Each structure stands twice: as C-alpha cells, then as structure tokens.
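User:
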Amino acid sequence: MGKRAMNNDADQLILKVLAQAFAGLGVSVSQAGLELVANCVYKALSISSRNFHTAEHVLSLVDPARPIQTLAALFHDLVYYQVDLGFCAEAYEVFSPYVKQIPGELFQVRQEIGGERAFGLALAIFGIQPGQVLSPSAGLNEFVSALVMSQKLGAYLPEKELLKVMVYIEASIPFRGMDTDHSGPCATLAGRLKNACEQYDVALPADEQVETIQGAALFANKDVENFAVSDPVAFLNHTWKLLPETNTALRASGSYSIREYRQALQHMLSFLCGLDPATIFRHYRGVPAEAELRQMQRFASQNLEIGCQYLTVKLLSVALLEALAVATGGDAPAASFLGYLRGEDAQGLRLEDFLPQVMPSPEADLSAPVFQLLSSASVDHLYFELSKSPFSLFVYKMLGMAGVRQYLEMAQGMFSGQLSAEAFLSRVDKEIVSAIARACAALVLSRSEQLDRFIA
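Assistant: Predicted structure:
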C-alpha cells in the first residue's frame, strides 16, 4: 500500500487492528467505544510535524497474533513532545493531573498518587518516583503515553493486560545501556514488574511475567528494526525521515537556510556516530536467540558506520556552500544555492547542472559503500535533496573519504565561530572551491560578482 493510501486509510486501519486486539484478548467493546479510542490514537499520530512517527510507522508494528503488542504499538508514540512541539489536547487532558510542566521544558510528576492504581502501576513500571523531574528525551513521552493508554483502555481491559501493555511501552524507550547495578533494561524492567505485581497484588504468575518481558523485548526491537536492515539505503531512508521531526526549521519545505540544513546534518551525524550498537536491541532470557541478536547488532554496526560516512560527506558539502554564502553576503535559503527539487517533468536548474565532470581522485574509493550510496537513485531524501546526491558525490570524487574528514575538521572551526568563512575556504583545495563557486555563480545570479573572487 502506498504512503498516500496509507494516510487516507489510517483511521480505518487503526480501528480495525484495535478491534482485532480486543477480540484476541476476549474483550467485547462497542463500536462507539472502539471509535473513541481509535480517534484519539489517529489524531495524535496525524499531527503535521510528524514525518516518521506516524500512523504508518505504528501500523507496521502491530501483530494480529499478539494483541498486547498491537495495543502497545498504537499507544507507544502517542505523545512525542519535542516533535509535536507540545501535546495533543486530548492526551494532555488525560495526563495533566499527574504531570506538570516546569521551567526549562521539563516536567514534574505530582507528589501524591492517592489510591489511583493505574498511575501507581505506571510509576512502578517506569521506575519513576513522585515528584521526579522528567525530560522529553528521557522517558517522558513513553510514560505519559502509558498514562493515556491506561485511561483510554482501562474501562475495557483486565488490569493485568493493562499492566502488560505498560511494560511493552516502557521497553520501547530507546538506546539505553546498563543500569548502575549493571542490569540491562529488560532485567531492570523484569524486577519492576515483579515488584509492581507484589505491591498491587496483580495476579500475574512468574512464567507469565517472563513471557511479558520477552514479548516486550521483541516489540522494542521491532520498533528500531530499521537499524538492522541489510540494505544501507533502506536504513538511510528511515534515518532521513527523522530530520524534519528533530529539526523544526526543516519542516518548511524550500525556506530553510543553508546553515539550518547544516545544523540538522550536524545533529544527525553526532547522534549516529555516538550511538553504541549494543544499546539498540533488547533481549531477555534467550529472546531473541543469541545468534539473531548478534546478527542485528552486526548489521546495526555496519549501517551506523556507513551512515556516518555518508553524512560526513553531506555535511562537508553543505559546509562549503555555507562558507561561500556567508563570504558573499550571508546565509541564504538552501534552495537558492542547491536549486529547487525537480518534479516529474525534470524542470528547474540545480547546482549539479553547473558542476564539471571530473575523474575520481586516487583517494576516492569507488568500491566503497558510501560511493554507492551517493550514486544511488534509491535514497529518498524527501524535500531536502534529489533522490541522488550529485553535489556530494562530486565532493567525494574530488577528495575521497580522508580528504572529506580533513576538511570537515577544519570546518568545525567555522561552525564554532573560531574561523571565518573566508579563512576556511582559503584552506580548502582551490580546484574544488573554484568549481563550486563557479556553479553557484551560474545558479545564484544575484551573487555572481561576489562569487567571482573564489573562481580560479
């Protein structure tokens, strides 16, 4: 099913899988009740700022044979504060009595929990104390999503099933290493589940607790399965969709500046290069199997390495444009220097139309995966770039990976303000600066005279 069809049918698909999940748990819910829950989920996932954490992503995680996983899938991304720049009104109404915002885009859990079991269970499963301060980047979204889930499903599901869904949602908090006691996230979660069942007298036998943690581990792994794909292009396609979610300026197609684009690439490169493959996937008591876990980690390591190389080339390419823009009048819309995306009729000029054809330098490894990615027509760059990366490919052919890294290290001085744009450009090979400046002069006519001084 195409993305447009998915978007149009998402509300009905959510309703369908929700009904299947209830039926799988032997729960009967009226059509009106189903629609109320489905509409809440659909509205939250349809906020315009979402580009990756959408209904399409959520529906890719459901499993008709696993109703708890399906319910967790529907609710685990319901709240995403930093992407939505706030909260869906219906979700906020549910959790605002329990969590309040304090200065600094932080949130504080209320001090008293009274006799509200669902709230107490959520605190126990997430390891949160009354009065604790939460950050959107450290579990807030999943915690309040679990609170909304409990309120929306509490009238229909037995308490132990609600508890299981909470466990699955907690497990989806990504990229966590060992706790201070050297327990992995799932082992820690298992301890919390055991304590919650004892404290609140929830009838969940030990073997069912183990099965719940194992199922939660599989769900968490499916949520980040794109890290373990065998095709780096597919990995980058997913990664690229996160850019507009995590960088507000890029949501306005065609109007973001070169510097804003560079900063977005910088953030993504820093994130990927700092990510430990060992923190991506979950496991508990042999699930998933050790061989499968190692394979996922191996693919993730390869994807991160290739992705970092790819973004390194992209970042230097944009840095060169930023330097030329700043040196000739200041930062400018990225579309002015790159050209606008071509439609199916292939109209409109692009920067690469004015770049010379060059023979790859000896330093450029044409067998390297990064070269294949830069040459690929399969990388979907949405509205940020063409499906190919001819400008970045040009830079890579001229410099090779070692040269790219060398000049990007110099560019860090420009990014931090310690080096002027002119000083940075003076340190870059004159042939590449001249070629890019000539192409920019042909495309950005209003700055052609200023750009001439960089053309050899």
